[in-house]
Amino acid sequence: MHEFVSLQLLPHPKSLDVTEGAYVIPANGRIVIANSTPTGILPAARRLQLLIKQTLNFELALSIGTRSMVQPAFLFNQDPALPPQAYEIHSGVTGVHVTYSSPQGAFYAVATLKQILKQTGRSFPFLTIRDEPDFGARGLMIDISRNKVPKLGTLFKIVDLMADLKLNELQLYIEGAPFAYESFPQVWELETPISGEEILQLDAYCKERYIELVPNQNSFGHMEGWLTRPEFNHLAEIPEGFSLPESMYYSEFYPDGLPMHPGTFDTEDPEVLKLLEKMYDDLLPYFSSSKFNVGCDETYELGLGKSKALAEEQGKGSLYLSFLQKIQELVEARGKTMQFWGDIIIQHPELIPQLPKNIIAMEWGYSAEHPFEADTLKFREAGIPFYVCPGTSSWNSLTGRTDNMLANLRSAAIHGKTNGAIGYLITDWGDHGHWQQLPVSYAGFVYGAALAWSVNNNLEVNVPEYLNQFLFTDQSASIGQLLLDLGNYYTLEATYHGNDSELSMLLRSDLDNLRIIGQLTAEHFDKLENYARNIAERIEGLALQCEHAELVLRELRSGVHFISHAVQLGRLKLQLAAGRDQVDRGLLAAQIHDLDLLLHEYRLLWTERNRPGGLALSTAKLVRLRGQYAALASDLAEPARV
Questions:
Q1: Per-domain residue ranges for the chain?
Q2: Looking at CB atoms within 10 Å, which of 95, 172, 225, 234 has the fewest?
Q3: Residue 197 among the catalytic residues
């Protein structure tokens, strides 16, 4: 068996056959486009040309048409019989031949060639690859609304990674004002949003890489950023706000209940649709995409306020469907196909057949046990096209929840493929401050992209090796497994929480909330401390050669710092639970100093990849904790009163 049989490819192709022998790429060879009308293929050919220069340190000229005197090291040949995104690669004694149907397929072939060349250099193995995706749409959604709005350069880097992973759809989740709506400057004047002009640049950058930049703006629930403003408050279902039912939150974290700002539109107020029209007309012209994700998830107040009587008469589901149809009319009038989150309509399965057939349901769920199989079957039976939308499990986690992430992404892919999903969208949220650093999400991006391309061929794909070789160029070959391990500290906690971790909850809770400790014991904190210490030691052994290597190391150290601080906070709360006279004042003083250091580095790291707006809100709970530490220290310093 030839040594090249161990090629690491991600996504792993549908079919890979490696045989004995290798083609040595000649420095005087050419990249030849066999067709007479090569315009569409030029981006892929030029990408290969640049790749050869970067990897092999020589340039191959481009030629159009085959000639006897031209030596084609790489030959591109179109075959319209192939599916649009499919490609084939065959290498032998005459060179490397790429067959494609569309320019997009040729682009994906070059993405595969990139991985092969990085591993083999000039000695290109004799092989045959036949490949095409399971899901036509393979996307990534980045939350830019929970405080953290990435710089344009950061988004470009994410798009580059998406191109390497053969993803073809990007969504930037918008609620509130991370986008500069030109009709509403008062909404974002104190923020640093992404502008329409920047969207144009990003859209063009995506198109060059066969990625569709799909607008994503919530339009029903999650409207707190607008409905808490005086000029829009009257458009809320419950303008004064409401308390979430106890069944919908963790009561130990919110012992006094969970009050919520108004976040859901009044479906019967015609001014709501006029506001949405103006928002859409500010946003949509900057996107060339034919799709538009309007959100419409988690409409908590629907039927509980102004529409209560109507909901009792018609049913909440009917109210929801009616308003969704009105939004769909706005979207259709603007030439877009509507996507919407499917969590509310799935609670009313009898109404699913009444959905317009020209919309796309986005079936989301982020736990390993989410019922993708049952839910997607409901959409399939009703003839409603749908995506499956799992997540990276990075949010509310500090450094990820790896085992849950892997299982969630896998389940969505398996059941999505079985039940006919037309798309697979990897979601990366930023709830409660967006504390996780970007590298925490990379493993989810990579594994999700592999599954989206070919489920059965990538269930056991080597994610750590891809991270080591292609993303971080780690000479120690360690960071991939380290990132996966970093995200599994939550398995040492006392209680499993969906979309959360106990250490993250500790940092977000008030210092005097001792119920949050729950089942956590000193033994739990000892294990967590040892785990974090081991990860910290392993970080110092990494040998990254990637761009921004030192930044990545700092981000990893910051994540471990969050874990370590939360562990010590847990110990402090155990002492408080035993009585204030049991509090170790040295530990409290150390926590104050440590939190100052944590916040200082977190603020510095924030500005490396993200815009300054949102940073104060992101750190608000940590700043509050700092104040509560100081108040406790002051209280303990006072002499006991007789």
A1: 3-131, 137-461, 483-637
A2: 234
A3: no
